[in-house]
Design brief:
This protein is α+β, with helices and mostly antiparallel strands. It has helices spanning 19-30, 65-68, 71-80, 85-104, 108-117, 134-140, 155-166; strands at residues 8-14, 36-46, 52-56, 122-131, 147-151.
Length: 172
């Protein structure tokens, strides 16, 4: 069971091709202030023609070896590579990366599931995070919208995050 201090994977889906990029910017704006540490953040958008685009930060904020720089981008890149996914991920990651991917719940089934859920005109934000204060993070993501498509955290935390995403932001 994943929780405080663990490395967590989040896949958040949006019905708009630009929304995942906007939410990534908002999350990175309050990162580290409230106990949220983003090791990597990747946006995948599925265009109207069915093709995919992949965008990631050039410099992850908490680079920690393979988990901090390029790992998530490589794995999520498998979503856009279609049938090569499993072979590419396995070959490119090597022993350490495969172990981390397995621990996070990233496998061929994960890639197929996410790919299948992304309809043309949608986007997804993939986050590799660690948190020291889940309650504060939940408060700060309130109203950002989106659906938790996939995560490796325990069901109670995933439910709290989804409820926060769905709750309208208070007006200032």
């Amino acid at each position: 069971m994943h929780g405080v201090g663990d490395l967590n994977l989040w896949a958040l889906g949006y019905d708009d091709p630009d929304r995942a990029r906007e939410v990534r910017a908002q999350i990175l704006g309050f990162e580290d202030l409230h106990g949220l540490h983003v090791n990597d953040a990747v946006v995948v958008a599925r265009l109207a023609d069915g093709s995919f685009t992949l965008a990631r930060d050039e410099q992850p904020t908490a680079a920690t070896g393979v988990a901090g720089f390029g790992f998530l981008g490589l794995v999520i890149g498998a979503v856009v590579l279609q049938p090569l996914a499993g072979a590419v991920v396995g070959a490119a990651l090597g022993g350490l990366g495969v172990g981390l991917a397995k621990r996070l719940g990233i496998d061929d089934a994960f890639v197929r599931e996410v790919r299948g859920l992304m309809r043309p005109g949608t986007s997804a934000l993939f986050l590799l995070t660690r948190t020291d204060n889940p309650e504060a993070v939940v408060r700060h993501i309130t109203g950002l919208g989106g659906a938790v498509v996939k995560t490796n955290v325990h069901a109670d935390l995933a439910r709290q995050v989804q409820e926060a995403l769905d709750t309208p932001r208070p007006t200032p």
